[in-house]
Amino acid sequence: MPKEPVAVVGVGQTKHVAARRDVSIAGLVREAAQAALLDAELTWADVDAVVVGKAPDFFEGVMMPELYLADALGAVGKPMLRVHTAGSVGGSTALVAANLVAARVHGTVLTLAFEKQSESNAMWGLSLPVPFQQPLLAGAGGFFAPHVRAYMRRTGAPDTVGSLVAYKDRRNALRNPYAHLHEQDITLEKVQASPMLWDPIRYSETCPSSDGACAMILTDRAGAARAPRPPAWMHGGAMRSEPTLFAGKDFVSPQAGKDCAADVYRQAGIADPRREIDAVEMYVPFSWYEPMWLENLGFAEEGEGWKLTESGVTELDGDLPVNMSGGVLSTNPIGASGMIRFAEAALQVRGLAGEHQVDGARRALGHAYGGGSQFFAMWLVGAEPPTG
Amino acid sequence: MAPHDQPQVAVVAFGQSDHLRTTDELSEVEMLMPVLHEVLAATGLKTSDIGFTCSGSSDYLAGRAFSFTMALDGVGAWPPISESHVETDGAWALYEAWVKLRTGEADTALVYSYGKSSPGSVRDVLTRQLDPYYVAPLWPDSVALAALQAQALIDAGETDEPALAAVASRSRTAAATNPHAQLRGAVEQGEYAVRPLRTGDCPPVGDGAAAVVLATGNRARELCERPAWIRGIDHRIEAHGLGVRDLTDSPSTRLAAERAGLFERPVDTAELHAPFTSQEVVLRRALRLADDVTVNPSGGALAANPMMAAGLIRIGEAAARIHRGASDRAVAHATSGPCLQQNLVAVLEGEARA
């Protein structure tokens, strides 16, 4: 018996900011969940199960916070599942929720991911010393900068490409009312003049630390038929993981990312992603990851990703818009960042992305990654239900 | 809904470590690896044969963020694998894997979980899972909260201290034949830990790991002589605030059991994740267990309670009894959160023997 088709009928997110001092963690997640229910015109009683994701518990200093959040998310008396797959968690969480519908275990599922980084200190959370393991003393930027340099060396990309991505994403964010950074006076020169943090990554080419939450209502075919607004249909979804450290690992273009994308395209019947996908929300916490992932996801041949970026293909009005919402570079509540990518892809094919809508977007990819580029989660959503 | 049209899923292998008070000489990965090798050897599967992998663990026990990444390196996730992780007991990882198998996207799954409580004070650590604004700052520890529940049961006339002592004694006696258990054979009820609970009413603090292999349909029959079929599995959560709950009852367990189909036919075996003697009293009633049901023949969580693995072990122990023909229909239960806040119930069956 084939799987039940899965539809996104509600999307909600908070306005992402550096510190939401006006709400508790429970208040923050409830805001996003209520927005998603409002979009779907459903009530808490219509939700059969809740699937929650976030990045490490040390980021807020609460162990297994879903226990405390059961009340705020209307989960009392329902199944509640907590997912944690590092930075890819927002995407993985949505996929776990989607599987509940696809396997016909539940009809309608609320899925939500969040991070309230202002409650604690993420750098501290990532820097707890562990015996016999190498310390990650330089933060995430220090870990990823050498891999960016390897990409530049390997492809001969000029060192201006990173700033183009940052300039584009920050301008896109100005069209997204939920984005954290709204830099009204952004210019390419300002990005290029920002301080060098981890060569070649400049300050303006990095993501902010945000408080925020994102929620979606996923439902089956019957639920989609009742939805007041157009649903986004899931055409493919996959997760892939590989080890953090081993001799054969390609940090520039990890095999797990390639395999994950290939699985999603196979499910969705996509042979040529560059032509058949209309918009992409990819996980780009440091600007250079846009050209790197363009190659990893099969939108460009190896060594050619930076050319797509440089020629303006990935601009909002380009042929393959990337990170229309402003992306992780403009908004990064870590545990939610992957789900925001998935949710923005859904908004695009529903035609509900507002000022950053891509005209006629019919198929969109949501992408997330985490750990040392070792965890990947992706889905492809479409305006039409899947066939077969 | 037509559940019988979805692939049927069975537990085909189970392995666990010896549970120890301290494992200073072992990392989490080193504790886990022999168990993973054990279940893979039992099924003849290699990592690359497994369709889906899911694990359960807690960063707060490991004392570091992303602690599960090192275990994944140990699994040998190459070529890349389809994999996920839950930040809770491995029983919920098994649930996620069961859902994945029910979609038909995979026909085998590896589930594992582990936890080391020995490096810190688990009573203090668990206070960090309480409401962070109003409750956690008071540091109420897990034994104190369980004692509140025990006292509520005694006040309601549901049990008394001698009855609790009998639960402890029966569990530890049963564990005498469990080579993996941490506490085996008679254990003294001891002094009060927090009234009315004595040390004998409380679980041992220790380290351990467990792993399970799941498979669907005929694949399960190929991998295991007598698969333990998961006839139903469900989990439910209750309110977090203890003040709004009736601690003498477990409505989430009852509902999960109903949804898992437990009440359709009697079971012969129950593996209950009841770290405190008083919690067995609550669970027995919620699950409507008859007096002739064999409860916790492994010794249960009173004999070994490795955090994040103890719930998965209950499912594994129940399945292992079916594998070896000691049970035909068993219920396994796992819990998470203070005073049984979140509960999972799985009903396992073996096919009729010739």
Automatic annotation (TrEMBL), chain A:
<dbReference type="InterPro" id="IPR055140">
    <property type="entry name" value="Thiolase_C_2"/>
</dbReference>
<dbReference type="InterPro" id="IPR016039">
    <property type="entry name" value="Thiolase-like"/>
</dbReference>
<dbReference type="InterPro" id="IPR002155">
    <property type="entry name" value="Thiolase"/>
</dbReference>
<dbReference type="GO" id="GO:0016747">
    <property type="term" value="F:acyltransferase activity, transferring groups other than amino-acyl groups"/>
</dbReference>
<dbReference type="Pfam" id="PF22691">
    <property type="entry name" value="Thiolase_C_1"/>
</dbReference>
<feature type="domain" description="Thiolase C-terminal">
    <location>
        <begin position="243"/>
        <end position="372"/>
    </location>
</feature>
<protein>
    <submittedName>
        <fullName>Thiolase domain-containing protein</fullName>
    </submittedName>
</protein>
From TrEMBL, chain B:
<dbReference type="InterPro" id="IPR016039">
    <property type="entry name" value="Thiolase-like"/>
</dbReference>
<protein>
    <submittedName>
        <fullName>Lipid-transfer protein</fullName>
    </submittedName>
</protein>
<dbReference type="GO" id="GO:0016747">
    <property type="term" value="F:acyltransferase activity, transferring groups other than amino-acyl groups"/>
</dbReference>
